[in-house]
Design a protein that fits this description.
Elements: H1 3-20, H2 22-25, E1 30-33, E2 36-41, H3 45-54, H4 56-83, H5 112-136, E3 141-149, E4 152-159, H6 161-166, H7 169-205, E5 206-216, E6 231-235, E7 238-239, H8 243-250, E8 258-263, E9 266-271, E10 273-275, E11 278-283, E12 286-294, H9 305-326, H10 335-345, H11 350-376
Antiparallel strand pairs: 1-2, 2-3, 3-4, 5-6, 5-12, 6-7, 6-8, 8-9, 10-11
Helix pairs in contact: 3-5, 4-5, 4-7, 5-7, 5-9, 7-9, 7-10, 10-11
């Protein structure tokens, strides 16, 4: 079943329960007013304070460096977004990514389980970091919570707005930069784990033996014919030995070609369609991965957990880096837009810098919307 149906069912159940038990839920910190459900709590404030109290000076120094990193990332992301307009209809740089759902125009498919865990890590690390820096700057936290806007989930740490506005500008910059810098830091940790597992742990316990089907793209020539887990042995009698031979072989076919795919479970005939990214190349609709065999049996089947760790670290890295960088775009109400406004306020008056930031925000929003529309087209 397409992942979108899981979301629709889950959100329908959440809204039905919320509306039926609205009166009781409001006594437990819930605010329910369609299309918004918000749950506030103060229980996690103690945990955030303990982390903040470990070394407030360290958090301040670290996030001062984070401010420079954030503005560098803001410039880079703006340049990438603007320059992508040249090829927006062939390779759009912005697309909606939903775990477990194949989005039109997106070349990235995020598995449901790994994607939800990685997305949770994005929200928790991002919001907790805002709270940690707020407390380090002696700014109180009003509440912590979760929200659901129609079908869009989120989380929040709510600093005291009056105290935040009254604080020094450098303190405000640290607080706003904290979320994305924390996401990028977690992405770095995940990347290191990925390298260690892929370069050392897996080679020490496994040997590669061919290519297997990791995923079948829905409504593709392979859908309903081939299955996930099949080991690819040949295509039109051309032997597949490794990743390179697989890439070379599949790139040699054109749309409309009839090909015979040899697997460890038999031979299957496909009629190729046009590749969404290059219409001159035949499209199988196969996402392949290396097939491994366990050679170190000292620990039974336990070493297979390395592949779980590998996939999880990959998606924690991808989502934390991607969402963290996106949040630094000079676009209000994103943190990047707020940081740009504070930066300009050092030299410009409010009646000058606010229209500038608002204009930049409108331009950025139009580019993003245009890119999203182009990805669907």
């Amino acid at each position: 079943m397409n992942g979108i149906y899981y979301y629709l069912i889950a959100f329908a159940i959440i809204w039905i329960v919320a509306l039926i038990f609205k009166n009781k839920l409001t006594n437990h910190g819930f605010e329910i007013d369609f299309p918004l459900i918000m749950w506030r709590t103060e229980r996690l404030k103690g945990a955030i304070k303990k982390i903040s109290d470990i070394s407030p000076r360290f958090w301040k120094y670290f996030m001062t460096l984070g401010i420079f990193l954030s503005f560098a990332a803001m410039i880079l992301m703006t340049w990438i977004l603007v320059s992508s307009l040249e090829n927006v209809f062939t390779t759009p740089s912005v697309s909606i990514v939903i775990p477990g759902v194949e989005m039109p125009g997106s070349s990235i498919y995020v598995p449901l389980g790994y994607g939800l865990i990685a997305l949770a890590s994005v929200l928790v690390v991002h919001e907790f970091s805002h709270g940690i820096l707020a407390l380090s700057e002696k700014i109180n936290i009003k509440s912590i919570g979760l929200l659901l806007f129609a079908v869009i989930p989120g989380a929040f740490v709510e600093p005291d707005e009056e105290e935040l506005k009254a604080s020094k500008k450098i303190s405000q910059l640290r607080v706003y930069a904290a979320g994305s810098v924390a996401n990028m830091s977690l992405a770095l940790v995940a990347f290191i784990i990925f390298l260690v597992v892929s370069s050392y742990a897996i080679p020490a316990n496994f040997t590669q033996n061919g290519i297997e089907i990791d995923r079948i793209v829905g409504d593709s020539p392979s859908d309903g014919i081939l299955r996930e887990g099949m080991v690819l042995e040949s295509i039109n009698n051309q032997t597949i030995d490794n990743s390179q031979s697989y890439v070379n072989i599949i790139g040699s076919f054109k749309p409309g070609d009839n090909v015979t795919v040899g697997t460890d479970q038999g031979d299957y005939v496909l009629t190729l369609s046009k590749n969404p990214n290059n219409e001159s190349v035949g499209f199988f609709g196969i996402q392949a991965a290396k097939h491994f065999e366990l050679v170190n049996n000292n620990y039974g089947d336990l070493p297979w957990i390395y592949f779980v760790l590998l996939d999880l670290s990959q998606w924690v890295f991808t989502l934390n880096l991607g969402i963290g960088l996106f949040n630094l775009l000079p676009l209000k109400p994103l943190d990047g837009g707020k940081m740009l406004e504070i930066l300009l306020s050092y030299k410009l008056k409010e009646n000058v810098y606010k229209p500038i930031v608002n204009s930049i925000s409108v331009v950025m929003a139009m580019i993003i919307i245009f890119s999203l529309v182009a990805s669907f087209i």
